[in-house]
Amino acid sequence: MTTRGETPVPYTHRSMESLRQVGDELADATVATLFERGEAGKFNTLMRWFSRAGQDLPDGLPDVAREYLHATSTPPAWVDWDEMEKARLFFIDNNVHISTALSFAAMPACYAVPHAAKLLSATHSLDYPSRRMAETGQFTVYLMRPDAFEDGSRFIPAAQKVRLLHASIRHHLRREDRWDLAELGVPICQEDMIGAQMNFSIQVLDALHRLGIHMSEDGARSYYYAWRVVGAMLGIDVDAAPADLESARLFSDLYMTRHMGPSEEGIRLTRQLIDLYEEVVPGTAFDPVVSALIRFLIGDTAADWLAVPRSAWDSAVKAGPVLLGLLERVEDNSPLAAWALDHLGGLTSNLELSSLTRGRVMQYAIPEQLKNEYGVTSTASRAARWTPPPLSAPAAEDA
Q: What is the pLDDT of residues 297-311, one digit of tens each?
């Protein structure tokens, strides 16, 4: 497996299976203690008031939670802040495109993994269909702010809460015997957490490339690096996770090959996503663009598994990269145009996020129970343009 600074080594089915047996020791122990002591509800109530780094922790917070929040209150010691700043600038330059890739490529890719779709269907409370996208978009915006790791930011508390959310899901599924451990391994295991990290990093970069976005090598690598830092803060074992884009390609290809397929939950989640963005798009004439864009970015096979409708727009969206290419050439040749497009992109992204969140700050609480119907029974300069690492060769079954 790959560790920091080493030459990429192919992942195998055996190495991936070993990752299916591991969760997140620190967060799992914290959540188990909260439930054993009957303090989960109290924790959720108090944590609604803890939303910014550097805040005094609320009085009455359970000791085990206080210890966890202290232990996870800072980013990893190995973070390269120059790389993180490059990632932030990359995000500013491409924020609308990244939002598009997250919405229409990364999330559908999650839905195309049946056991992940089942988890999402069971565990995120769909008070309104935009909740999952609102949480994802807000989390990414928090990450890419200049003060993301400083006192007063919202990113670190959000990461701490998401990590406990994942641990609580593992706790409920194992305690209530509603997860096939022998068949599926630990719920939200290291393999799945790294797989999600790939969805939001290299697969987003792949989608940007497919859209025709001109990315520098440095920008793409820095963006991936930022999500590597995020992964560590969400409980991913950094020695097991891909260290660079080349290793990420190996992991992502094998993970998706191992797990992608059709499911009722994937179809339902995709339909909710399409309905959500058809509401965001003004009028109805352009509604089919949403489905067409998803199909263009994830490919026909996955789109068919998710029952993404076909339409006359399927061919039209393929002209999108040409239009984006023209805009980028204007941006490259005019500092004023670059400034205007970046600001327009920021306004568009903020408008979309405001629509999804409905003006609310999303709260991440640990669920005290899961849905009753849940059950799983089976299986640099712009001239140096970045291109995705090539597809990897299939891994041996028993290597």
A: 999 999 999 999 998
